[in-house]
Amino acid sequence: MGVTKKAAVPVPSVGADVEQPPVKNNKEIIANNTTQNNLQAAESLNSEAFSESIPAQKSSDAIQNALEVISMDELYDTIYPPKIPIVDGLLYNGMYLFVGAPKVGKSFFMAQLGYHISKGAPFWGNPVEKGSVLYLALEDDYARLQKRLSRMFGVESTDNFFFATKSKTLNEGLEEQLNQFVKEHQDARLIIIDTLQKVREVAGDKFGYGSDYDIVTKLKRFSDTHNICLLAVHHTRKMESSDSFDMISGTNGLLGAADGAFVMQKQKRTENKAILEVAGRDQQDQRLELNFNRELCVWELVKTETELWKLLPLW
Question: What is the residue-wise DSSP string for the chain?
Fold first, then answer.
């Protein structure tokens, strides 16, 4: 009987008598699961890549924003070119202010200085670095310049002393104009801006310490880039002070950003004598007594009260 029971157990048929599960539906389910898993894997990889890119981006930004530092050893091992004296002991490469009251004789001084540098002729007996000079005489016209120069130097002219009576302001393109001049005159040594007020931003802007510092910083950056001297003529204020440099019109931002300054003063406007005080980063403070030769229309040095600074030996 047991054998009969085993024989009586029905054997499942692959025919029509047993219904098979729908194969197509199972395949679709498998395909959907695979696609979903692949999308989840891709999202996971993208997420990991994005999370890894954040520190990388931060690291790149940190490198770009890092301070540029130099060690004391590197500082000592580096050879820096010395400041070139335009007029030995008096004027060097950099940004300087030349300050004085109106009609005190600043323009005659500028013309005299520019002429000597363009000729390579000693100035008050001091050696001069010869080179091209640009004089922006922005308060003059060419007829007045011609008259002044002929009175000072007669017919003895020079071919590398250049003049302009108009220019753009600093925020309108003055720097591009000066760049073009220096590009065309590789031997440029001095650029005179007469006056600073003429190249400042448009009238009506509020002038404070920040704007004063900014305008001189722009001019200093230009002089440092081209390794030349830039001399800007400026006015004194009416208020008297025991310190001549406190009489510079404007805030301390002007002098603070400059490499040095010259202040010319007269006790009386009608007299020929004047005091020229000099302060700068590359020379010792000086007090010069000057006399204006009305016949030749040039400034003559009478005496220097402060001895010129000399480099002390290191041993």
Answer: -HHHHHHHSPPPPSSTTSPPP-HHHHHHHHHHHHHHHHHHHHHHHHHHHHHHHHHHHHHHHHHHHS-----HHHHHH---PPPPEEETTTEESEEEEEEE-TTSSHHHHHHHHHHHHHHT--BTTB-B---EEEEEETT--HHHHHHHHHHHHTT---TTEEEES----TTTTHHHHHHHHHHH-TTEEEEEEE-GGGGSSPTTPPP-HHHHHHHHHHHHHHHHHHT-EEEEEEEB-SS--SSGGGGBSS-HHHHHHSSEEEEEE-SSTTSSEEEEEEEESSS--EEEEEEEETTTTEEEEEEESSPPP-PPP--
85-304 is a CATH 3.40.50.300 domain = yes
pLDDT exceeds cutoff 50 at 78: yes
d(CA 165, CA 140): 6
Per-residue exposure over 274-289, b if at least 16 CB sit within 10 Å of its own CB, e if not: bbbbbbbeebeebebe
Q: pLDDT tens across 188-213, in order?
A: 999 999 999 999 865 445 668 888 88
Please report where in the chains the tokens 């692959």 appear, as a residue: 14
What is the per-residue DSSP string for 90-135? TEESEEEEEEE-TTSSHHHHHHHHHHHHHHT--BTTB-B---EEEE
| Tokens coding 255 | 């002098």
Name residues whose C-beta falls within 8 Å of residue 168's C-beta, 6 or more positions apart in sequence: 174, 176, 177, 199
Kindly report the pTM of this predicted structure: 0.74
Burial class of 71 by CB neighbour count within 10 A (0 to 12, 13 to 18, 19+) = exposed
**Domain layout of the chain by residue ranges:** 23-80, 85-304
Residue-wise pLDDT for 163-193, tens only, equals 999 999 998 999 999 999 999 999 999 999 9
Given a cut of 90, is residue 292 above it in pLDDT?
yes
